[in-house]
Model the fold of this input.
Amino acid sequence: MSVDSEPQAPQQAEQGDAGAAFGVTARLRLLIAERPILVLLVVLALLIALTGAIEPRYLSLRGLRNTLLLAAPMGIMAAGQTVLMLTRGIDLSVAMVATAAAYVVGFQAGAGVGTALLLGLLTGAALGAVNGIGVGVFRVHPLIMTLAMSSILLGLFSQWAQTVLLGATSVDPFVRLLGAGAFLGNLLPYNTLVWAGVAVVLIVGLRSSGLGRMIYALGDNPVATRLAGVREWQVLIVVYALSGFFAALAGVLIAGQTGAVDLRLAQEFLLPSIAAAVIGGTSLFGGMGSYSGTILGALILSVLNTMMVFLNAPQALRQVVFGGIVIALAWLYAAATRDR
Amino acid sequence: MPKQKPSVWWLLAMLAAIAMLVAACAEEEDVVDDEVDDEPVEDVEEEDPDEEEPEEEAVEDVEGDFVIGVSNTLVGNQWREQMVCSIQAESLASGMVSDVVLANRDTDASGQIADIEGLIGQGVDAIIVNPHDRTALDDVIAAADEQGIIVISVDQAVTAEQAYNVTNDQVAYGELGGRWLFEQLDGEGNVAYMRGGDGAPADQDRDEGFQAALADFPDIEIISEVFTGWDPSTGASQALDIITTEDVDGIWTSGIDYPVVEQFEAAGEDFVPVVGADNNGFIEQLIELADDGLTGAVVTNPPPVGGVATAIAIDLLTGREDHPQDTILTPEVYDNIDDMAALEDLYLPDLPQGFVATMEFEGYTTYTQEQVLECEGP
Amino acid sequence: MTTATDERATSPATTPGARLQRWLRRHGWTIGVWLLLLAFILWYATLIPAFGEFQIASIARNSLPTVYLALAQSVVVIAGGIDLGIGALMVLANSASALLMEDQSFAMTLVIAVGVVLGAAFLNALVGLVIAVSEIPDVVVTLGMLFVYSGLALLVLPSPGGGTSPGLRFLFTGSETGVGTNYWMPILMLALPTALLAWWMTRSRRGLSLYAIGSDLGAAYLSGVSIRRAKVVSYAVAGGFAGLAGIALTTLANSGDPRFINALNALLASLAAVVLGGIVLGGGVGSVVGAVAAGIILFTLNPILTAMGIDPNTTQVVRGVLIVLVMMVAGLLEWRRRRAE
Done:
């Protein structure tokens, strides 16, 4: 009985479900399995249409801009989660890492924006690397390691926010522009540009770099990958550092959008960042998924949030719908890909 | 086989390590404590030869040796931090308090009951509590009262009859701000109503006041009602959606104000009147953007209720002055049309946006602003 | 290793000394955690001026919700899953029971309590069923349920309120007002469900099947364990304990509180208690008895650090460091063990 029996891929259980009926459902299922992105696009289009039906003025270029503007930080944060989930990991510290980075940028404002931004992003990567050491070297479960990191950061920054960081909450004009501004007739947000950059690097990197392939391999079959000579812990430190880096980037953008740094700056982004990756079809069992799905996941959640604002929905309804959508999409995706 | 045995010893070794770690943290505190505790004793010894002096000194010593416990259930919230700091500052400034014991963590009502029980066990003289729940603390407050401990609830009233309540009038907060906004719109227009946390008692009180004001203005329409959860980033995204797509003439916020104004600037929209709280960042916007067409009003919600409660606790402990069971502090409204001077007076240019600008409460608190900022207790 | 499954397989022809050694080895972690708890309580006793019945009663009754929730999480984790919705289910049970029990007689509140526990078990059984049928990872479904349960709690009870009967409060807290020096009742309420669950997990077929699917899904399937049923059972039992935690909350506070933050805090505490208690995330290893001690430790840490006058924010840091340290040591131990084998 090895302790190493990590959540095994459940395909082992109950394989033959039913004789596949070659009807419309089977073809639909094939379509979903082959092109999960299509399903997400349809869901996104439906949600946009529904939101438009509730508030017709939403269906405009400005409405689209808002959606992009609000989805970008979540999408960037979810980039880290996507990469981690590919290796069967997860990061619950992203919200606090994002907040920490935003504080560092504010604190270092005197050194010039460029330096401050660089230091902030490095802080995020360093904190992520610490997570990676805990998970990769000391074999602490990622949920626990990142949870503890989050708790430690909250404690430290609560203290510092009242003392050394008291003046660090104002946001540099450049960061504000980056987080909330837009160009091309105020229609294309700058933060979406950043997001696009992250997306290109990630999608290309995961597909064609050596590290990308190692990430997929590690999630798919850690034992075989280890036996093939890959130093698992090195890969893990790198991916957690990446997650920290993306969280820091998101934190800076959120600070720019909100206009000030506070201790709970990114708190509301933690669970959506995980949900976006899950909705996008990244399996928490590792080895499956892509960032393009996560992008759509972030857009779907962003439109959903906007819809709830227009519906004047109470928090209760918002939460039930949010949870329901996560489960429903995950189920649809799982049902479609099960027989592969 | 023997190689697998040590898990118990490992754990014990760890226990020792952890104990040392925590003890190391505590040692610093101990040193400070000792210094404070020792000094009065030395004083008494030195002046012992004098016959009359020691008695006076002793009386002073008894009076000035109160321990105040604080129970708070929300960490990382600027308002709450300032409330706690005002307790520390007032304790220090009064010179009557020897120690402030903080039980301050994110928890629920049952956790708060446990915290208060812990404070009772430590033998504090008074407990200042920011209640998580109106009714849940009734029995533990009764238990504290039986031990002769004075309990003061701040920010929100509790139902326990033994407790003193020092609160900001949240109903008035909702009503005063709402009324200002509706009058500003000449009683006609579309208003976005950006509430606080769904289910939070303060939010419900504010809603009661807001609805009362609304009842007097039949031509005001609430076109959007959202819960910010008092979270700046949530409020910012909701505000962006509302101001760019909906036809709003005014916005009432439950204290998430500067992120809302920020969205007008970012989206390049024309300002509409905004009601917010006395957050430093909002006051700054009201002053600096007045020429760009921003009108708005600050409704104060002062965190110094903590300091006020401390002052009252000391009065009650020394028997210096009696206080009514309920002290309700009515909010002030300052807009950037008629009360610009008052706003400039409130504004703290060196402090962060999230800082609440009202730092003192005349007639009660005796500390200086610096003492609040240092946030050091006795 | 520490599973009860291989207990039977050991040969009886061993000396008492060897048997003791093996018992120590098998339950080393659990024993260690209990010793740690004992040390913490003794330490606390030296820290405050008056330590007595009141403090023992306070610790016992106030750790009830955390302990029940730790038990709930343990069952799911041992069976190879993880339940992120468990804290929210507790909040839902707390809200619903406080709403229903207000101004009711003792008998009526008892009936409602049973109903709420069964209802919570049923709801979570459905969650288990969804996971078993859909084969979506546990984390995803229960993450969704975290929101669904929280939303439902807010729908049931829009703002804090409600109540319960003095009798029920006595049953859980040992006092009709929820505050007092009677520590037997809460200790009994801690021990009884723990003992029952521990017995069921290690001595009954169904309980053992949870260890089986947690440690090796394929092997369990081949040896005739119905994986779906075991999964559903694990979630149902967890749901029942979450319901119990909710009712304990109601009796402690004499009210319900639907806020989301409570669900999140409770969830984090349950996860921390499970891993500190020696239950391995991934399944198959650990004892629910260890999680109980860990739950109480996590609770006792608060008054200890408050009594030491440590800044509350430092407390947060210390707790995080403590958890990481324990897990790192566990990881190192595991690594040494694997190298030794």
Summary: Chain A touches chain C through 59 residues (CB under 8 Å). Chain A has one domain: 24-337.
